[in-house]
């Protein structure tokens, strides 16, 4: 088929710009929201983040199966962008609502709203991800689509993370307590984010098209049987889980790291100009750097191949993460931290579109080998890996901090109680050695991934003979 239009690639990017804006706020700020704003204990918050993924493990493949068997004038997957977008925004607002209730009732509210949010996230993001498999039949073009997707995703994340703390301060607070430390600030901040995300999902629906016609002719049981027999799928699930665990473990630690190690009033001097060095700045600089990595993904992957690129990227991430541990907490050290954040984020930016493009390749492999059009089911596993990686990362951070005696009681901290040395050391490990170990595991997993560039080219040539292409 002919190359797709630029406007479709831009439209596809708007979809992940919306969901990633939400996802990054959830991943990086929800742990500290639950522990320091909402009022849950670290242990309860960690259990909450993990337990809700049990439902996600069921809902993701369910949504994939439903989407694979949907047929409308708009296609299989695209209509869900229109149908689910309003619920997506509403549930995001409810998630960051703090009712004035007793602890037990608040804990139930947290479970209900978080499960609702993740269910709706599944309902819109599984079909959105699966669209990549039916927008083009060209493997390199899929990498281009993935790059647009991630470029826009990181752009949205950059804006959300850069403005989150200033936005909550502007919309909440009482003159003495900044909005970033009040439930009202977090609520109204999320109202603004939710409205913007709704608009972006509608734009994604309006600007994209499905060009490949795929029909599932086998039973649901056969789809699952072929999926479980799909070796490349298993390996890619492991790789994607590691990738999301790497990002979430670091990201969920940053707010705590700045609160207790960097401090909240640190300023950096840049050619005579002073600016505040805060968590949102650190994270948003990472998002811009991610965008640079996305731009590098296509030329590097086309030259080296997707598998080789993935392995080399994780090797670099391993080295850079270890280096972060040895950076001193000084003015020069803060600049070094920023440099390492830029470099780490560039390489995670290369990896993100690579994984989504590899899922599309796995979908093609499954269609040829098992004769099943299970694109939605396969991409649902990508969403599942993302959520499990986020859950394990977020819960792991909170449980590890709880185990080493991290203090969340604002009254104690206001009275001058300081964090124990064991907690401060754990925060440094969570920014360095622990992500490095995850990167090493990712290398081992992808080493056995069989879908090389030559194999994918052969698969695409065979599929062109049997597909119905617009």
Write the layout of secondary structure elements.
Blueprint: H1 6-38, H2 42-68, H3 79-95, H4 103-130, H5 132-135, H6 139-171, H7 183-207, E1 212-213, H8 220-228, H9 231-262, E2 267-270, E3 273-276, H10 279-304, H11 306-325, H12 331-370, H13 375-403, H14 410-414, H15 421-430, H16 433-447, H17 453-463, E4 468-469
Care to describe what's here?
The chain has 17 helices and 4 strands. With 470 residues, it is mainly α. The strands form 2 sheets. It has a two-stranded antiparallel ribbon with strand order 1-4. Strands 2-3 form a two-stranded antiparallel sheet. The longest helix has 40 residues, at 331-370. The mean pLDDT is 86.
Uncertain runs are: none
Strand-residue proportion: under 5%
Q: Note the overall shape.
A: globular
Count the DSSP helices: 17
Number of strands: 4
| Helix and strand run | HHHHHHHEHHEEHHHHHHHHE
Strand order of the largest sheet: 1-4
Structural class: mainly alpha
Terminal Cα separation, in Å? 7 Å
User: What integer is the average pLDDT?
Assistant: 86
What does the main sheet amount to?
Answer: 2 strands, antiparallel
From the alpha carbons, calculate the radius of gyration and give it in angstroms: 22 Å
Give the helix level as a range of percent: over 70%
